[in-house]
Amino acid sequence: RSYVEVGPMRSFVRSVDQAADGGELGTATDYYSGQYLSGVFGFGGFLAGTETFSVGLGLRFHYGLTDFVNDEGRTLGYPNPFHAPYSAEKATHPAFAEVMLEFNFGIGHWAKTSCGQRFKKAKRQ
Question: Among residues 16, 45, 103, 116, which is most buried (max CB within 10 A)?
Fold first, then answer.
């Protein structure tokens, strides 16, 4: 009926486009890491379902554990290269929040959505 998830995640970055003060800077991919490690925490649960269909809702939060700006970018003042340098160098950690709506549909003779069945059994007891 509900779940909690905790664990690591490795993100691979294809490109980074950056704008400052309303003007387009263009691609800044060379100044950011091509991959970084994040910690993930999520939770959610079953909303409704039948024998072959179920719906779930959840939240997931990601926080970058390693610096997103690489050494070259740090030398040039990224993530904000056109303003005065920072008084103290600090790491840049990406953070994301996701809302997940999950639909499970069992197709065929053997497929059934197990989340809905567990909920029905727990509700009868």
Answer: 116
The dihedral formed by the CA atoms of 78, 83, 87 and 88, expressed in degrees to the nearest 10? -10
Structure tokens that stand for 76 in this block: 């040039």
| Cut 0.70: pTM above it | no
In whole angstroms, what is the distance from residue 21 CA to residue 77 CA? 16
Our separate counts of H helices and E strands in the chain read: 2, 6
Who's near 43: CB < 8 A, 6+ residues apart? Answer: 2, 3, 4, 5, 58, 59
pLDDT tens digit sequence for 38-78: 999 999 998 888 877 889 999 999 999 988 888 888 888 77
